[in-house]
Design brief:
With 311 residues, the chain is α/β, with parallel strands linked by helices. The chain has three domains: 2-110, Ribonuclease H-like superfamily/Ribonuclease H (Nucleotidyltransferase, domain 5, 2-Layer Sandwich); 118-180; 205-304, no CATH class. It is 58% helix and 11% strand. The protein has helices at 30-39, 57-65, 75-84, 92-101, 118-145, 150-179, 182-191, 199-211, 217-224, 249-265, 267-278, 283-304, and strands at residues 2-8, 12-16, 20-24, 45-49, 69-72, 228-229, 232-233, 237-238, 242-243. The strands form three sheets. Strands 3-2-1-4-5 form a five-stranded mixed beta sheet. Strands 6-9 form a two-stranded antiparallel sheet. Strand 2 and strand 3 form a beta hairpin. Helix 10 (249-265) crosses helix 11. The termini are far apart. Mean pLDDT is 88; it is low at 232-238. Residues 4-147 form the Transposase IS110-like N-terminal domain.
């Protein structure tokens, strides 16, 4: 097998196969394909890369369309691997080299040609656009508060209204897409049975679970960035436990308010939350732990195709 490590960014693929290369990250990856066909039998290549949301989609589709095997590394694992090698600097070139070396830890069962789930791809595209629309609306709203000029206020209010309409339109389009696909509709409706989980949270959870099928409890927690991490060095440095905040921020943002609501109205989460407070956990940590619990409950429901069972 010929192993190739690739660090994916928005514009480029930083490639290492024994030497450092760079290719434009665009649909089809024609220049990269031309290079590979000239140098390797495609059936004997294993490409190692991290899932970086929409930026890695072209590479994943490229592997699927050309029957090229891949090993998609959890970013947390590759980060820990780099630390174990004593690699501290972080550049695209260094990351590609690190991913290349990761082949020493790969198992044959995890090396396979990626499969493209069109539903997951569509949901992810919608979610990225929705997140952009939300950020645009929030930015305009924040800017409006700082204005004093009446003419500017009128102008920004019009833009804010358009931004809100765009946000609502995208979200309604997502719901319509889900309603037209029976399997998505059933999963979505099951997630809505969790007390505290509303439409937006259910859509985000559905997209997450559909995009990363086959994940276990630890993996799905890490993908949302709710896994605990601590900075330690020898015996002198022992930092506080914090969440890693890996993965897309929208996963955590959309969870916060529903979790706060669930600590009041969801009996199972309320008991869990109150027990943490009784055990002298600060409210912030208790909320984060409750977020994690709701995530894992939803993940198990999605995996087993079951509805929520109240305590």
């Amino acid at each position: 097998m010929y192993y190739i490590g690739i660090d994916v960014s928005k514009k480029d693929l930083s490639v290492f196969d024994g030497k450092d290369l760079k290719f434009i990250n665009q649909e089809g990856l024609n220049a990269f394909k031309k290079y590979l066909k000239k140098k390797y039998p495609l059936s004997e290549i294993v490409i190692i890369f991290e899932p970086t949301g929409i930026y890695s989609q072209y590479l994943k589709e490229f592997c699927a369309e050309n029957s090229i095997k891949a090993y998609i590394v959890n970013p947390k694992r590759s980060h820990n691997f780099a630390r174990s090698l004593g690699i501290r600097p972080k550049t695209d070139k260094i990351d590609a080299r690190t991913l290349y070396q990761f082949h020493k830890l790969t198992e044959a069962k995890d090396i396979k040609v990626p499969e493209i789930d069109q539903q997951a791809k569509t949901l992810s595209s919608y979610l990225v656009s929705y997140e952009f629309a939300v950020k645009q609306r929030v930015a305009l709203s924040n800017h409006l508060e700082s204005l004093r000029d009446k003419q500017l206020i009128t102008l920004i209010k019009k833009e804010l209204k358009r931004a809100q309409e765009l946000e609502d339109k995208i979200f309604n389009d997502i719901k319509e897409y889900v309603s037209k696909n029976q399997n998505l509709k059933e999963d979505y409706q099951r997630l809505l049975t969790i007390s505290g989980v509303g439409e937006k949270t259910a859509i985000v959870l559905l997209t997450l679970f559909k995009t990363y099928p086959g994940t276990n409890r630890a993996q799905i927690t890490a993908l949302v960035g709710l896994d605990p991490t601590r900075r330690e060095s020898g015996t002198s440095v022992k930092g506080k436990v914090k969440i890693s905040k890996n993965g897309k921020g929208i996963y955590r943002k959309v969870f916060y308010l529903p979790t706060v609501c669930a600590t009041v109205h969801n009996q199972k989460i309320r008991i869990f939350y109150q027990r943490l407070l009784t055990n002298h956990k600060v409210k912030k940590l208790a909320i984060i732990a409750s977020m994690r619990k709701i995530l894992l409950i939803a993940h198990a429901m999605y995996r087993d195709k079951t509805e929520y069972v109240a305590a």
